Amino acid sequence: MTPLEMLEVAYEEARKGLAEGGIPIGAALFSADGVLLGSGHNRRVQQGDPSLHAETDAFRAAGRQRDYRSTIMVTTLSPCWYCSGLVRQFNIGAVLIGESKTFTGGHDWLAEHGVDVTLLDDERCVAMMTDFIAENPALWNEDIGVADT
Amino acid sequence: MTPLEMLEVAYEEARKGLAEGGIPIGAALFSADGVLLGSGHNRRVQQGDPSLHAETDAFRAAGRQRDYRSTIMVTTLSPCWYCSGLVRQFNIGAVLIGESKTFTGGHDWLAEHGVDVTLLDDERCVAMMTDFIAENPALWNEDIGVADT
């Protein structure tokens, strides 16, 4: 699979989340040879569960794996610290990111620690989050831990 | 509540996990005035879910919160990068840790980023993990992303 084909899986997850009334961030975990191990999307709204970011949902969907070093985490948006920590702890080898214009998490930190980070500048991903944040600023801030002052 | 009383809640969660055949790590999220918001334990084995570390399970149990700055995450063991990332992203103000002898995660990094970190040296927590790791090395390595070489 090409990077864009892998991103498409994450993007479709984000679209599912949006259609459900949720925060439109999607992710997918692939093996080195392009087999989809699991995919998911942010479910804060849908399940009232703040622990389910897109990447953690995809990680959960992939079930127990013994070795993540050759896997690729694909996400529509730069992974927050929570999801970056997941990648680092489990030694996920590569991260493919749709965009980091609307939010920048810990992907530079991951690159410093040896993760193969690829940052795309996917216009659909940017547009999806730009629109969502403009329409739902409080919900977005809740999802990234930004409190009202 | 005193730190030891708060740790007791996390320790009892870890004991529950052990009784279920799981990895004995427990956690609890408290408000500044000592109200228990949520508690949980590692459920990798019980639910086949690698995303449920003790801290993320407690965070999930606390449900959606608008502001974590005054909350305290109590955990029997030094939080791994995944759980440290959770604390940083959501601006959880304080972390109280039972021990870091059997595993050291990202608590120094959290302290550098302004989190109020208290590290105890609780003998019961140390003994519980020491025994568990000795008896289940492969399972423990799986939980912290250490692959067979």
From TrEMBL, chains A, B:
It comes from the Bacteria. Pathway: Pyrimidine metabolism. Its cofactor is Zn(2+). It is found in: Cytoplasm. The keyword tRNA processing does not apply. GO terms for molecular function: diaminohydroxyphosphoribosylaminopyrimidine deaminase activity; metal ion binding. This is tRNA-specific adenosine deaminase. Its main location: cytoplasm. Keywords: Cytoplasm, Hydrolase, Metal-binding, Zinc. CDD domains: nucleoside_deaminase. InterPro entries: CMP_dCMP_dom (IPR002125), Cytidine_deaminase-like (IPR016193). Homodimer. GO terms for biological process: nucleobase-containing small molecule metabolic process; pyrimidine-containing compound metabolic process. Residues 1-117 form the CMP/dCMP-type deaminase domain.
